[in-house]
Design a protein that fits this description.
It is a single chain. The strands form 3 sheets. The protein has a 7-stranded mixed β-sheet, sandwiched between helices. Strand 10, helix 8 and strand 11 form a beta-alpha-beta unit. It has about 325 residues and is α/β, with parallel strands linked by helices. The chain is built from 12 helices and 14 strands. It starts with 8 loop residues before the first strand and ends with a helix. Helix content is about 35%, strand content about 20%.
């Protein structure tokens, strides 16, 4: 049976998160979910119904969430701490820094409804800072899955990790990007399609529009490579440098501020490696963001497929 990346709609990554976590918890009594009034938004209701002894509800108290998760992890529990990304990485940043990272507790921090998933709720609920603040904290791995396959693999990999990890999820249903035989490794990017003119380095839900942009560019004679940089920290520098050496330009794509996220991480790698190449960061600029649905916001800021295709052509003309 043939497989075409990006064709066929799967589930929301949060649904896969719940299913995978439930499977893990049924096989290991130490697997726990800790939430702060997030079992609904985190799609954990089926998990709670099936294994009520494996979920801890702390209410709307993100700092308590992280502190309790750190304590449980120190006692040998495999803890997934679930909260909206905008609140988890702002209200509880000190606890993430000290109780989890500085204390080296292997908590699996799960930021849900990340980026602009909450859409019209506005900037208070948008998470456009989380990659930047967590990249600046030592001793934490940052994973942003792009489809259901990457999500399931990341959740299972996180269960065995002995140090802190941050997993970032949006809300939309996602297309399948990878063949079943694909090998997933934390810290190793996955190539969704090959190309020789421009490379899109994307992460999370933005990988799909990057792929659609590549398809649009193909009709115009432009060959675009698409890489899913699912691990933002540590970054797969080898994949990035290889792409920069084999293509004429690089465009990074993220549902995050252009400051401190995937784009600046990639730029730092290329500059320090002495690689000079036309390069563009696509994300959210330093302004009060427009309000609308996730799709409308993406369209406005050039994260949708058409905008990415235009950016790629512009950067190739530099």
């Amino acid at each position: 049976m043939s497989f075409t990346p990006g064709v066929g709609l799967g589930k929301a990554n949060l649904d896969v998160f719940c299913e995978t976590l439930l499977s893990l918890a049924r096989g290991d009594r130490n697997v726990l979910a800790v939430t702060c009034d997030s079992r609904g938004s985190g799609r954990l209701a089926p998990f709670a119904a099936a294994l009520p002894a494996h979920i801890v509800e702390v209410g709307i108290a993100e700092q308590n969430l992280v502190g309790i998760a750190a304590g449980l992890a120190s006692a040998g529990k495999i803890v997934y701490a679930v909260s909206p990304a905008s609140f988890l990485t702002a209200r509880a940043l000190e606890q993430i820094k000290n109780d989890v990272c500085y204390s080296d507790r292997p908590v699996k921090l799960v930021g849900i409804s990340a980026g602009v998933s909450y859409g019209a709720l506005g900037s208070t609920h948008h998470s456009t800072h989380d990659l930047a603040v967590l990249r600046a904290i030592e001793n934490i791995t940052i994973i942003v899955p792009a489809d259901n396959f990457e999500t399931a693999q990341a959740i299972k990999a996180a269960a065995t990790m002995e140090h802190p990890v941050y997993l970032r999820f949006g809300k939309r249903s996602l297309s399948h990007l990878h063949r079943p035989q694909t090998q997933f490794t934390v810290g190793k990017a996955l190539t969704v399609c090959e190309g020789t003119d421009v490379t899109f380095i994307a992460t999370g839900e933005t990988v799909h529009p990057a792929l659609m942009a590549a398809r649009e560019l193909e009709t115009e004679g432009v060959s675009a490579r698409v890489i899913s940089m699912h691990t933002v920290k540590p970054l797969d520098a080898d994949a990035l440098i290889r792409a920069a050496g084999q293509c004429r330009a690089v465009v990074t794509v993220e549902e995050h501020s252009v400051f401190g996220g995937l784009g600046e991480a990639c730029a730092a790698v290329l500059m320090q490696a002495g690689i000079r190449i036309p390069f563009r960061i696509v994300g959210f600029p330093d302004e009060y963001m427009v309000t609308g649905s996730q799709s409308e916001i993406w369209e406005h800021y050039g994260i949708a497929a058409q905008g990415l295709a235009q950016t790629a052509k512009a950067v190739l003309d530099m």
